[in-house]
Amino acid sequence: MHRLLQRQLKKARGGTEGGAIDFDALLTLVDAAYGEFDSQRRVMAHTHNVMREEHGQLNARLSRLRDGISQMGAGFAIWDSEDRLVLCNERLREILSHVANAICPGASFVDLIKRATPFIASIDESIGSDEWVAARVARHRNPAGPFEMAFTDGRHVQVWEEKTGEGGIVSLYFDITDRKRAEDELRRAKEAAESANHSKSQFLANMSHELRTPLNAVIGFSEVMLAEKLGPLGSQRYHEYAQDIHNAGSHLLDIINDILDMSKIEAGQFDLDAEWTGIANLVNPAIRLIRDRAREAGISLVLAIDPGLPPLYVDLRSVRQVLLNLLGNAVKFTPSGGTVTVGAALMSSGGLSLRVSDTGLGIAAENIPLALKPFGQIELILSRKHGGVGLGLPLSKRLIELHGGMLDIASVPGEGTSVSVYFPPERVGRAAAAAS
Amino acid sequence: MQLEQRIWLPREGWRLMNSDGADAPALVIFFAAPGTIDDGARYNELKAFYPGAAIIGCTTGGEIADTSVHDGSIVATAIAFKHTRLAFAETSIGGTERGSFEAGMRLGVALPRKGLRGVFLLSDGTQVNGTDLVAGIQHVLGPEIVITGGLAGDGSSFVSTRVGLNANPETGKLVAVGFYGPGVRLGYGSVGGWDAVGPERLVTRSSGNTLFDLDDLPALDLYKKYLGPEAANLPASALLCPLRIHPVGKPEASLVRTVIGIDEQRKAMIFAGTIPEGSVAQIMLGHFDHLIAGAGQAAEKAAFPEAQLAILVSCIGRKLLMGQQIADEVDAVRDVLGQSCRLTGFYSYGEIAPLENSPFCDLHNQTMTITTIAEA
Questions:
Q1: Distance between CA A132 and CA A151 in Å, rounded?
Q2: Same domain as A423, residue A294
Q3: What are the DSSP calls for A320-361, one per residue?
Q4: CB within 8 Å: B331 and A165
Q5: A-chain residues near B225 (CB < 8 A)
Q6: Which of residues B232, B263, B285 is at a domain's end?
Q7: Do B9 and B135 have their domain in common?
Q8: Average pLDDT estimate for A212-227
Q9: Do the strands B27-32 and B54-59 form a parallel or antiparallel pair, or are they unpaired?
């Protein structure tokens, strides 16, 4: 008799083995058991359907994951806690092409690494390949961030490894050969460019120096001739020629000095020799040097500088050179009857500006950036009439920038040009100091 | 150690099941169907049978007498020890938030620590947080003392349970008995036998013992899908599908949690224990053969050759699921422990035993939990 029926009979006998059977109670128990079986069957059938549905969903999820993994641009591998390959994609075999045949589920990581060792270029000569394998396996078991490997065929691979929840490892292999190559090319190009720029500056500095030495002889001897220190030249023509030699030499020396300064600045070798100085001490020497030329050209020079302005902490020679250059340009490009004005003003920021403005030809707005570029074309065009190699404005700009300031050109063609030079507050002293 | 077992059935009253002829039992453990002990008459009869004994007992979701499973009975086991001494602790559940933990601590403090070999615990089944209770008593006694037992039951009603020590059982009570002396030997085993089915899902939103989302989808919807036609009987039918959780950061440990309620509006499930966010959860289904085999495995863990008494604390969920076939799991226990070991027990609202592979006790759901006792 089925044990359930035995139990039902026992219950129908009031819990005893031999009592009288209560048939109503027995029927109730048996009926209830049939009901339980029916409901159990219903539940099982339903659960079976749910499981089938979930199984389908899991399969769909799994194939999505498989799909994703196989389409990855990186080589992908999962290793179990025993370091055996569980899953990988084709890309992994492409990247680790030397050992592709050995890459299959169940393969041991140590075995694959040993096989790969002869093809790895980045093994340090000082350690043996056994040691390298041991270190690689240790790193694999305890990942410590990405690292790179180079193969003997010139390819580079970046490896990412992380622990999985069940004590295994997930690995990603990226082929970074192209990136490496691009990086190398970029580095080489940068080094070449730096080297070329340095050579250029060095060449200019050397050349300027080499040119200056003979030029000083030319200028010096022409001065001796002009002064007729060793006796009269005789012909007036000789005197004029000597004067021409002297003028041309001096002009050439100015140009060479500009080139030398510019190349020093570009090579980062130009050091400012700053000191405190009054505005007048900056402006007056430049005015003195330009005054005769202005008078000869029929141009009036106007000085509009408040004597109470504070002193500046600047490189005296550089700023005088800038002012002389700006004044020279102003006089050069202003027709007879015009005016050149030198002004200075304290700014609300605490900085100070010096301004040289003229009533000359002016520069078209689109030509201003060119004028500020070394050997800018605008001046080359103008030079045909006025002379110069176009270094004056760019050099002035760089010298002012070395002071932490700015040079700004405002111009209206046919009306005139105004060049402003700003010095930042930290180069401007207190007004009271000007008196001393 | 000598034993005597009695059963009370509505139609015939008390009947002696077996007796070793002990004259003065020290301990009587009884399990009573709800409603059978309300008037105190049955308790007084027990007291009259065993005048010198300490009597502990509780209400149930079904009583186990030998290999029979009853509803509406009372089963009592009287134990006379040769050398073993006993100590008792009794408390009531407080109304505070940490009431269960504190009640556990009070029980622990009341049991002398010297010579203590093990603790059997019976607790109110509807007002007590079993997880906190076990943590509280173990906080005092330490992890080396094995604590087993269970939460009292109320049939399949989940309304009101009773527990008592030397008095007719009352609601809100907790009692513990400590076993002392070198001669007493205690064993335990706790196994569910449920099958985790379908995919593992991440607990993406939960709060305390309320579970909102698994894998960002409402937990209630998932349960309804699994229950199908049985979904109409929620929350009772959710007993068919307990939830296994792997706590955060402990993938090797697992706990089973029973559904005790649902929240239709928030599409949430309420469990008989906390469901921490970030845990990995998997729905479980009960295959009868596997549940029965699970009971046998629990017996194997608890078994030792001299074991004289086995107290079976099995989950009410198993009984509601298996119906009349539930007695098969008791048969499975008998098959393992043999005829020489007497069986008693009850269907509970929560089982107490150490976690597998861990000294720490915890509240279990859906298991067969067995405590075996012998005295040398």
A1: 14
A2: yes
A3: HHHHHHHHHHHHHTS-TT-EEEEEEEE-TTS-EEEEEEESS-
A4: no
A5: 50
A6: B285
A7: yes
A8: 88
A9: parallel
3-class SS at B250?
coil
- Closest chain A CA to residue B287: A44
For residue range A245-266, list pLDDT tens digits in order.
Answer: 988 888 888 878 887 888 778 7
Do A85 and A150 lie in a common domain?
yes
Range of the domain at A431: 274-435
Statement to judge: residues B259 and B306 lie in one domain: no
Q: Which of A250, A266, A282 is the last residue of a domain?
A: A266
* Domain final residue pick, A266, A294, A325: A266
Which among B250, B285, B320 is the end of a domain? Answer: B285
- Quote the tokens at residue B244: 């296994």
Q: Which residue on chain A is closest to B323 by alpha carbon?
A: A36
Across the range B58-65, mean pLDDT stands at 96
Residue-wise pLDDT for B308-328, tens only, equals 999 999 999 899 889 999 999
| More reliable by pLDDT, A378 or A324 | A324
ipTM over 0.90: no
CB contact under 8 A, B199 and A43: no
pLDDT band for A434, please (50, 70, 90 cuts): very low
Q: Which residues contact A399 (CB under 8 A, 6 or more apart)?
A: A261, A265, A315, A318, A319, A321, A322
Rounded percentage of chain A residues whose pLDDT exceeds 70: 95
B339 and B210 in a single domain? The answer is no
Over residues B67-94, mean pLDDT: 94
Same-domain status, A78 and A194: no
The answer to whether A167 and A141 have CB atoms below 8 angstroms apart is no
Closest CA to B241 of B229, B258, B253, B266: B258
Total number of domains in chain B: 2
Put simply, the chain A residues between 23 and 42 with a CB less than 8 A from any chain B CB are 29, 32-33, 36, 40, 42
Q: What is the pLDDT of residues A29-46, one digit of tens each?
A: 999 999 988 888 888 889
- C-alpha–C-alpha distance, residues A394 and A372, integer Å: 5
Confidence of residue B202 (pLDDT cuts 50, 70, 90): very high
Q: Is A4 on the interface with B (CB under 8 A)?
A: yes
Whole-prediction pTM: 0.63
Burial A165-198 (b: 16+ CB within 10 A, else e): eeebbbbbbbbbbeebeeeeeeeeeeeeeeeeee
- The 8-class DSSP code of residue B253 comes to -
Q: For residue A201, give both structure tokens.
A: 């500056």
The structural domain count of chain A equals 4
Assigned token pair, A68: 């994703």
Question: A423 and A287, same structural domain?
Answer: yes
CA atoms lying within 13 Å on the CB side of residue B152: 32
Same domain for B106 and B203, yes or no, is no
Residues A283 and A410 in one domain: yes
Q: What is the pLDDT at residue A356?
A: 94
Q: Which residue of B has its CA nearest to A31?
A: B324
CA gap A52, A50 in Å, rounded:
5
Over the Cα atoms of chain A, what is R_g?
46
pLDDT higher than threshold 50 for residue A436: no
Give the residue numbers spanning the domain of B261: 195-285
How far is it, in rounded angstroms, from Cα B22 to Cα A250? 136
- Type of residue numbered B242: P
Which contacts qualify for A407-414: CB closer than 8 Å, 24 or more apart? Answer: A407/A322, A407/A372, A409/A363, A409/A368, A409/A371, A409/A372, A411/A362, A411/A363, A411/A364, A411/A365, A411/A368, A412/A362, A413/A361, A413/A362, A413/A363, A413/A364, A414/A361, A414/A362
